[in-house]
Design brief:
Layout: H1 4-14, E1 22-25, E2 31-34, E3 41-43, H2 70-75, H3 78-96, H4 98-105, H5 109-131, H6 141-153
Antiparallel strand pairs: 1-2, 1-3
Helix pairs in contact: 1-3, 3-5, 3-6, 5-6
């Protein structure tokens, strides 16, 4: 169960070949995610091909700023910053915030996607606000992301 949010986030962020993701619950209440439907599976809202996409990608796909410097972050598109922020939110939550991770597991699929977008938007805004004032363009944006996340959730 502890890997539920990680599995969901991995599938959400990396996508699948067909683009559709299914949440599957077995008779014991265990939840898994799959690219193909099976017994007890429901289509994850927003994973169907008709979802609004940018250049063929969903809002949470294609972020490639994980190793970017502050200078590179400033030059990147909002869509790229948002997708990368979603990745960082999922990863930092996994490693530093088990309480929030547990709460996210309890959300419905619609609620999870909404929460992920809200968190990613908040994180992107914090990072962008902080880096716009920085004099040192070679600092890693991920460092700022971790600082922002920890300040939001009061974790060490």
């Amino acid at each position: 169960m502890k890997t539920l949010i990680i599995a969901a986030a991995f599938l959400l962020i990396t996508g699948t070949a067909g683009g559709e993701i299914y949440k599957c619950t077995d008779a014991g209440g265990n939840v898994t995610f799959a690219a193909k439907p099976g017994p007890g599976c429901k289509l994850l809202p927003g994973s169907a091909p008709e979802e609004k996409q940018y250049d063929g990608k969903k809002w949470y796909e294609g972020g490639d700023l994980h190793r970017a410097t502050v200078g590179q972050w400033r030059q990147a598109s909002y869509r790229n910053r948002l997708a990368t922020s979603a990745d960082w939110f999922v990863n930092i939550t996994k490693s530093h915030n088990p309480v929030l991770q547990k709460e996210l597991k309890r959300l419905s699929l619609d609620e999870y996607l909404s929460a992920l977008k809200t968190a990613a938007t908040q994180l992107e805004a914090c990072i962008s606000g902080r880096v716009s004032k920085m004099k040192y363009p070679n600092i890693k944006a991920a460092t700022i992301a971790t600082f922002c996340y920890k300040s939001f959730y009061s974790i060490k």
